[in-house]
Hints:
Elements: E1 5-11, E2 19-27, E3 33-37, E4 55-61, E5 70-74, E6 77-81, E7 87-94, E8 104-105, E9 109-112, H1 114-117, E10 120-121, E11 129-134, E12 140-143, E13 146-147, E14 154-157, H2 160-164, E15 168-171, E16 174-180, E17 183-191, H3 197-215, E18 224-230, E19 237-239, E20 243-248, H4 256-272, H5 299-316, H6 322-337, H7 347-352, H8 365-368, H9 374-390, H10 397-411, H11 419-428, H12 433-439, H13 448-452, E21 457-463, E22 480-485, E23 488-494, H14 499-502, E24 510-514, E25 517-518, H15 524-529, E26 536-543, E27 546-553, E28 560-566, H16 572-582
Helix pairs in contact: 3-4, 4-5, 5-9, 10-11
Amino acid sequence: xxxxxxxxxxxxxxxxxxxxxxxxxxxxxxxxxxxxxxxxxxxxxxxxxxxxxxxxxxxxxxxxxxxxxxxxxxxxxxxxxxxxxxxxxxxxxxxxxxxxxxxxxxxxxxxxxxxxxxxxxxxxxxxxxxxxxxxxxxxxxxxxxxxxxxxxxxxxxxxxxxxxxxxxxxxxxxxxxxxxxxxxxxxxxxxxxxxxxxxxxxxxxxxxxxxxxxxxxxxxxxxxxxxxxxxxxxxxxxxxxxxxxxxxxxxxxxxxxxxxxxxxxxxxxxxxxxxxxxxxxxxxxxxxxxxxxxxxxxxxxxxxxxxxxxxxxxxxxxxxxxxxxxxxxxxxxxxxxxxxxxxxxxxxxxxxxxxxxxxxxxxxxxxxxxxxxxxxxxxxxxxxxxxxxxxxxxxxxxxxxxxxxxxxxxxxxxxxxxxxxxxxxxxxxxxxxxxxxxxxxxxxxxxxxxxxxxxxxxxxxxxxxxxxxxxxxxxxxxxxxxxxxxxxxxxxxxxxxxxxxxxxxxxxxxxxxxxxxxxxxxxxxxxxxxxxxxxxxxxxxxxxxxxxxxxxxxxxxxxxxxxxxxxxxxxxxxxxxxxxxxxxxxxxxxx
Length: 591
């Protein structure tokens, strides 16, 4: 009997047609009937994506090239007869989805996302894997996989799980490298945009250093690769065990505020996942079942708390001013307050239902759900401040996260759903049951002012535009989000219990006139500003091309700005705890 080995030969021949030509070469001895399955989702992105839909032109032969019988037996599975002495499973993958969770191929680059390209052989996921690439002249490759000695563009994985967690970037990309803690780190950039590689290298290195210091000890990888996809409209990121893929819009590198908010915090977020999610994880997220949903109520911890630290670590690294950090936090709080679904869905429920709700949103979603990223981040903030205040700064969320890391290093096991709360209580020495019941397991309102006050801070709200120098004045809030459509105002979202909803408007309506006069996307807000509270206004709108009328009453609610401001006379204790939290003093920049 010969031990099975699996090789994926992936060829790029006509990149403008968006096809990868793939051959899965199964060598050694197998069961006479083999079953191959394509994953239906990607770890780190909790949505059934049905990658098998992009598979075509399947052919199977034995090692000598003789045809074998192959039958598709489910949406993502094929059965091969006569496989005992090995076989070659050939197919093509259509790859034209330029996002971090799917493969993409054109004449500028190729992105191989293994869950969408590489099926597994049932019963043989522990077999070693090799990937061999056939690339156009001038193209190179970059990945977290280990290279095969003496063979260009060939890589080795110890098993299928490792293969799936190591994406491969191909093309004529730009790259730079740096070393931290004697570990090589590589930045690979495909796409366009005006990128200051020197600054990106320096500031990515600073984030890496700050994050490694946060967790303590040596980093849990031999080398690390940052893959940047810099394309128009690109966004999001996906973490992997020793690499990450970052979708960055072409224009996100300027000005500085956009660069901090859209580039540096994303780098920090995905790199933080190297510890939290890729190692520390819920038990349901490893080992993975690639054929169906993997449920957990802890995504608020692993995504939300990671989102809390992505901004905070950029501040601690000295790459974002504290005042700007407070502005971002205030914006997040304001966004949460504008989401009616925060009063309907708990964080635990949001985590569990991500498969059917968060990644499949419609126009009613803001009224029905809350983001475990957004609210999870803010609950992370509240938990950190609560623990710091109650222990007089002796313990923080930092200590709780490091305890999770220490426990993982001891046994490598995941955590059960109740464990995060019990570990937080053990580390802090506090009874946190009331906190978690309110913040995580209910849809009750959160009290940010009570949490900020001991740190010499306060949350303020004022009417947007009230002190505007151009004299625009405040805008009445009618509860809609709009898009421009044919120079008219299309309602994208209508919030529940808002003036617009009470008037009978709904998402999809196109408003064309107010009190008999035409409105456009440019004039809509200025017309609203002219209306006094209590006033009624007649609206003309199209619903499925039928002209209709509605009467809307303007109430006394206005669009608002939220800010976090230092309390002028904060005491020494508040300043001490605040500086320990932020990693630096506020100084004069915060006023």
